[in-house]
């Protein structure tokens, strides 16, 4: 048997792959370094590109200037006319002196036939020039880069004139092109040094900016920042609490869906000043910081809100809003239930007393008196219910008034309907009117308790022509001083101790808001009995009559 040979392990090829960094610091640093390097290379190239042409132009102008200076010497023209071309002649001597003094490559003086009278190489004297001298001999000055017997050079040619101004020859001066190229090459290291310095400064600035950005972004990756932003948007628009962010100038910077619903705002209001999109009032004062505190109560559009405001480091603020309408309603229902329980407890006690009285009358054989006693006790409650239902045809409001009458009786307060009360069963918003009437009666009962003759009167009138409902609730309490009649409708203002479930100062503010939401009004004045009289006017609070005639005070058609 042959032993099985185990397979040889294969070495996995390791490939080094340089990926794009994830951190914001690294990405921004690399991008800024790339930008700085590109800008530096581009600026250097843009500077070096025309440098060669500029140096050529400077060399040609220098050669032309030397030629003009040489041609301006009058002895050269005389020597050219009265001597022969020779290596030791005065023309050659003067030309070489000028060449050595100016550093030119050559200074060539020629006659009208193009024959050289001077040259750097003496053997060239007496020969024709290698380039065309016609333009200079024609009286024109020439600048050019040309190829001659001494190689490529920057040349300047000018005509040579005698004392009378006649052209007797020409002067050609050349500057070696290698000198121009040397100047160009010599300028490159300096440019590269400047470019390197600029690149180093740009790299340092990029590093500092990236470090600052790293601290501000907590060294997160762009993907993490994007994910956090998406999560923040989902969280802000998903929570059931209004969030309003303001900048240092009081403009709306962020507005989630719940805040839009509670404040009745739109997405387009983002970026607008808060005071421009909210009506004047306590809500605007709380959100802008003019009213400070924790868990501040305010009313907006018929909703009871709890607002908190937290300033931010940049001078702005973030405000949170919680809808407490249902909680406030439940609290008031709890107050009403407690009052009803107390009333029922008192009624039970009174009922027990009546039963004991009735039992005593029966045991004594006073049957007639017992019958009269029961009839009187039942008739009082029945009369109250019948009086309410005859004048108030809406079932919700009628039930409220009957219940409040019972509570008022147990608290020792007389609750009565005014003689002109008449309300048909055509209310547009029965729950709203129930809230208004209930709040006003509760306040009136609290005020009337303890007065000499405690009494509360409720008047409800409907105008069929304008479909307006007018409500009036008066009491015999201490009344409201004239200087405080505007304050009683302000959120948070109250003269009573707060209940166990929350704060007071909401009922009358809610009454005014509900009235104003329907285009009406709520006011307070003094009643005839010396107490307070609240008047609420609700225009178009009745639905159109289907076709019947208006009702009279007795409930019968006219």
Automatic annotation (TrEMBL):
Its main location: membrane. It comes from the Bacteria. SMART domains: HATPase_c (SM00387), PAS (SM00091). The keyword Kinase applies. Keywords: ATP-binding, Cell membrane, Kinase, Membrane, Nucleotide-binding, Phosphoprotein, Transferase, Transmembrane, Transmembrane helix, Two-component regulatory system. GO terms for molecular function: kinase activity. Residues 429-542 form the Histidine kinase domain. The keyword Phosphoprotein applies. It is an enzyme of class 2 (transferase). It is found in: Cell membrane. InterPro entries: HATPase_C_sf, HATPase_dom, His_kinase_dom, PAS, PAS-like_dom_sf, PAS_fold, sCache_3, Sensor-like_sf. Coiled coil: none annotated. The chain crosses the membrane at residues 29-52, 191-209. It is a multi-pass membrane protein. It catalyses: ATP + protein L-histidine = ADP + protein N-phospho-L-histidine. It holds the Pfam family PAS. This is histidine kinase.
């Amino acid at each position: 048997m042959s032993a099985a040979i185990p397979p040889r392990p294969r070495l996995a090829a390791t490939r080094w792959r340089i990926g794009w960094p994830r951190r914001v610091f690294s990405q921004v640093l690399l991008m800024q370094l790339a930008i700085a390097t590109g800008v530096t290379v581009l600026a250097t190239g843009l500077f070096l590109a025309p440098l060669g042409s500029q140096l050529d132009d400077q060399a040609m102008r220098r050669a032309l200037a030397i030629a003009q200076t040489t041609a301006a010497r009058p002895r050269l023209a005389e020597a050219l006319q009265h001597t022969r071309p020779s290596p030791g002649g005065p023309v050659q001597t003067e030309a070489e002196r000028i060449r050595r003094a100016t550093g030119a490559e050559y200074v060539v003086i020629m006659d009208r036939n193009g024959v050289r009278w001077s040259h750097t190489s003496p053997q060239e004297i007496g020969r024709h020039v290698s380039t065309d001298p016609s333009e200079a001999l024609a009286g024109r000055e020439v600048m050019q880069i040309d190829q001659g017997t001494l190689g490529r050079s920057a040349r300047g040619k000018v005509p040579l004139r005698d004392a009378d101004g006649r052209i007797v020859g020409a002067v050609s001066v050349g500057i070696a092109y290698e000198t121009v190229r040397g100047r160009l090459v010599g300028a490159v290291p300096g440019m590269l040094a400047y470019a390197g310095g600029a690149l180093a400064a740009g790299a340092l600035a990029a590093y500092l900016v990236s470090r600052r950005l790293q601290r501000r972004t907590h060294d997160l990756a762009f993907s993490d920042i994007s994910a956090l932003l998406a999560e923040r948007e989902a969280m802000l628009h998903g929570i059931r609490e209004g969030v309003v962010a303001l900048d240092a100038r009081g403009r709306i910077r962020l507005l989630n869906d719940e805040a839009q619903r509670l404040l009745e705002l739109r997405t387009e209001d983002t970026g607008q000043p808060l005071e421009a999109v909210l009506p004047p009032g306590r809500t605007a004062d709380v959100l802008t910081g003019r009213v400070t505190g924790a868990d501040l109560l305010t009313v907006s559009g018929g909703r009871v809100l709890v607002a908190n405001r937290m300033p931010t480091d940049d001078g702005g603020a973030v405000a949170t809003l919680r809808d407490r309408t249902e909680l406030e309603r439940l609290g008031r229902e709890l107050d009403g239930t407690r009052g009803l329980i107390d009333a029922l407890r008192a009624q039970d006690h009174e009922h027990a007393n009546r039963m004991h009285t009735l039992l005593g009358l029966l045991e004594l054989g006073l049957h007639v008196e017992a019958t009269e006693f029961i009839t009187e006790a039942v008739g009082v409650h029945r009369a109250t219910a019948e009086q309410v239902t005859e004048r108030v045809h809406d079932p919700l409001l009628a039930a409220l008034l009957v219940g409040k009458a019972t509570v008022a009786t147990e608290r020792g307060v007389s609750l009565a309907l005014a003689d002109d009360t008449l309300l048909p069963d055509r209310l547009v918003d029965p729950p709203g009117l129930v809230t208004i009437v209930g709040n006003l009666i509760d306040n009136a009962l609290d005020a009337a308790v303890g007065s000499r003759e405690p009494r509360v009167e409720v008047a409800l009138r409907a105008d069929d022509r304008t479909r307006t409902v007018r409500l009036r609730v008066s009491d015999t309490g201490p009344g409201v001083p004239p200087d405080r009649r505007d304050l009683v409708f302000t959120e948070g203002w109250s003269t009573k101790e707060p209940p166990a479930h929350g704060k007071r100062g909401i009922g009358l503010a809610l009454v005014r808001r509900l009235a104003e939401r329907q285009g009406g009004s709520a006011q307070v004045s003094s009643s005839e009995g010396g107490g307070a009289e609240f008047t609420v006017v609700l225009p178009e609070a009745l639905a159109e009559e289907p076709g019947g005639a208006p009702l009279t005070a007795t409930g019968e058609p006219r």
